[in-house]
Here is the input.
Amino acid sequence: MLDAILDALPETPSMDDAEAGGPRRVAIVGKPNVGKSSLLNKLAKEDRAVVDDAAGTTVDPVDELVQLGGRTWRFIDTAGIRKRVKEASGHEYYASLRTGAAIERAEVAVMVVDASQALTEQDQRIITSVAETGRALVIAFNKWDLVDEERRYYLDKEIERELVRVQWAPRVNITARTGWHVDRLVPSLDAALAGWETRISTGQLNSFLGRLVSEHPHPVRGGKQPRILFGTQASTAPPTFVLFTSANLDAGYVRFIERRLREEFGFEGTPIEVAVRPREKRGRNK
Here is the structure.
């Protein structure tokens, strides 16, 4: 029976086909009951996903082709991540695994946050997962109709404190239930995808690095000062840079380089990877 079912199913399009001009892939992620399915329904302009106040109504990721901003997008509504995978049990365990797979299959993730509630460790963990997977990121603060002046004050403080590592992610305030400002997701998605696919020339990069090192040289360590010999952008999606150096660079200096790269070239909405390749020491002649 299984063989007969498989024979009747259409062939699954390869990821290469999708990347060659298919709809951009967007994963809607977030903890349970923040309004992910409501957002998908509003974007699709019809009820495509079950919505209920009970947390975790959605268990399986659901792919939907949605017309938005005059284009077709593939939205992936994911199950809410309740616990760490190793702590989850039964269907929660497999839902968490599928959510991780959905993030990997997407190009950009919309992280839905309940703006009326304090940011949680769960929110931060999901955001970190998106960034570590190397996907572009847009943060949608949902239920904005429930945010008063006092909550807005505390939310600003939480963003400064808790989301400092993803300051590069575009933020949009929405109310999925009514559709308020959900159209603003399109320019944010476009900006994030543009940053994710940005490539700068080797000449531009090394000119930038030359100015940077001249103005802010690496601190001297053990009587020696590591030097950046050459840099190149190895890939995009996400932008990945390789720095060839005379010795290892301090982690703080690498973060400084990343910060200045963003100031110089933008890279809005995307994580940046900076790898350091120290020059191998030549063996001494005996």
About this structure: The chain is about 35% helix and 20% strand. Residues 14-18, 49-60, 79-85 have pLDDT under 50 and may be disordered.
